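step: validate -> pass
step: tokenize input -> pass
step: predict -> running
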Amino acid sequence: MKLLVTLSLFLFYQNVANFVTRLDFAKATKDGIYLNGYVVNIPYEKARSLNGKKIRVNGKVTIVKGLKKRPKQTLQQGREEDTRYIESPRIEILKI
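step: predict -> pass
step: emit ->
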């Protein structure tokens, strides 16, 4: 029973991101903004207002699998590597 609870907690924490970073608006794309290896979905105006500030981000992580290269196949649109998204992040502004 203890092993099952420990495994459940481990799997839960694998799907949750929690980190502190300084937001750089220059890293924004149409997908979101790249922060610590995650694509974080932040509205454009909110991202502009947070530019240069130190923030704590936490939220559920969704992984979108990348495309596999196959020989002699037409090119596909998309990313080759897996992409980690945080769709509904909780953002806290930290004092400098």
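step: describe -> The two ends are 44 Å apart (CA to CA).
step: cleanup -> pass
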